[in-house]
Design goal:
Layout (H helix, E strand, L loop, with lengths): L1 H13 L10 H37 L3 E6 L4 E4 L1 H7 L8 H4 L3 H8 L4 E8 L2 E9 L3 E8 L1 H36 L6 H32 L8 E4 H11 L1 H6 L3 E3 L6 E4 L1 H17 L6 E9 L2 E8 L6 H4 L11 H6 L6 H11 L3 E7 L3 E9 L7
Parallel strand pairs: 7-9
Antiparallel strand pairs: 1-2, 1-5, 3-4, 4-5, 6-8, 9-10, 10-12, 11-12
The chain binds adenosine-5'-diphosphate.
Length: 380
């Protein structure tokens, strides 16, 4: 009996129970039962340890910050991401002493089961999900900076679109009201107004086309027809559409590059060239020059369009790829611009996994350089 008691004592440390058998049946039954129990206990403990290390690993790998608090708001468990977000805290610390966010503290102290608080920490925005559980409270911090930014961009985009559409709509309404009421008697004046209406309608439809194009490129999942294109003919096609401006402003075009074939979507590549070459012409000076160079560079196509035009101020250079950003709104509108051209270019280049560079000097000119990897034709 003393031996059993000693072994049980020993068992309490590592739950192992080992005892030799004696010649007493009753005694051996007890020893067997305890041994069995010890075996089962050790198995359960092993499983619990495994589960715990799995949980720890999950918490460690999580991008979200996780904190488990007891009922007195003391930390039971905190993962590495939570420490990165909230600063250094240890188990047993009271979170109330460390947190500077009154919204979270208020949420901790009330009885609502699940709450959501959005807070800004340094340069990031987090949604903190606070849930009351049996042990106390859990806090989960999810980084929502990118989603909030996208949401802001979307709402800015819509407000820009409605602003851009409202202006021509107002003037169309004004002129058409005057004409409909018969208030303009002079035929010349009537013609002038109709011409203005026509111009506004053209600029509106240009804007709508650009918006549709941009959203189609952005949604990326659209299957587009790819085909081999001769770049020289494509450039000629673009230049043809600017014939009037080229003659009007006496612009000289230089395009002495060797022809090359690029596989892409005709409309996308045409629009890309049309926007970049169009800008080089639109924002040029009288008697200016535009240099177009297209060449094969390894497995990629490099397109360089340089002009001797008005240039872009340094402060605006990073922003001209944003939607609706224009350095000189008056000039852009007068030349049929929508402010979406370079945004379309940037998105198209990234759709083709290429890169774009802008170099510009005020009053001297601008160079746009794009490198786009050669694409392959998908087999049907
Ligand atoms: P837009 O339709 O107004 O031309 P873009 O997105 O194509 O819009 O260009 C944005 C702005 O960048 C233009 O309004 C213009 O101010 C400036 N910009 C673009 N290309 C040039 C260039 N080659 N030379 C000078 N300014 C340019």
């Amino acid at each position: 009996m003393i031996e059993i008691s000693e072994s049980l004592d020993h068992m309490s440390e590592d739950f192992r129970f080992d005892l030799k058998r004696y010649n007493y049946a009753e005694f051996n039954i007890i020893v067997d039962t305890i041994e069995n129990l010890s075996h089962r206990l050790r198995k359960v403990i092993k499983e619990v340890k495994l589960e715990r290390s799995k949980m720890e690993e999950i918490l460690k790998q999580m991008n979200e910050g996780f904190v488990l608090l007891d009922k007195d708001y003391r930390i039971i468990s905190i993962n590495a991401s939570a420490i990165k977000i909230l600063g250094n805290m240890q188990p047993n610390d009271s979170i109330i002493d460390y947190l500077y966010y009154p919204d979270i503290i208020n949420a901790l102290k009330n009885d609502i089961l699940i709450q959501e608080v959005t807070i800004k920490i340094k340069h990031s925005i987090y949604t903190c999900y606070i849930s009351k559980v049996d042990l106390g409270t859990t806090l989960l911090f999810v980084d929502v900076t990118a989603a909030k930014k996208a949401e802001k961009m979307r709402s800015e985009f819509f407000s820009n679109v409605s602003h851009e559409l409202k202006t021509p709509m107002t003037s169309i309404r004004g002129y058409s009201d005057l004409l409909a009421q018969g208030l303009v008697k002079d035929e010349e004046r009537q013609k002038e107004m109709l011409l203005k209406i026509q111009n506004e309608v053209n600029s509106m439809s240009g804007l709508i086309n650009d918006i549709l194009l941009l959203s189609r490129i952005e949604s990326m999942d659209v299957e587009v027809d790819m085909m081999p294109m001769k770049m020289k003919s494509l450039v000629d096609e673009v230049l043809e559409s600017y014939e009037v401006e080229i003659i009007e402003h006496d612009i000289t075009i230089h395009k002495d590059f060797d022809d090359m074939v690029y596989i892409g979507n005709h409309q996308q590549i045409y629009t890309l060239l049309n926007n970049v070459i169009g800008n080089a012409i639109k924002y040029n000076k009288e008697h200016g020059h535009v240099y177009i160079d297209i060449e094969e560079q390894g497995q990629a196509m490099k397109v360089v369009v340089r002009d001797t035009g008005i240039g872009i101020p340094l402060a605006d250079q990073a922003r001209v790829f944003e939607r609706f950003y224009r350095v000189d709104k008056g000039r852009s509108k007068a030349r049929g611009g929508t402010g979406l051209g370079l945004a379309i270019v940037k998105h198209t280049v990234s759709l083709y996994k290429g890169t774009i560079r802008l170099n510009s000097e005020l009053d001297k000119g601008t160079t746009i350089e794009m490198t786009m990897p050669q694409q392959t034709l998908k087999q049907a």
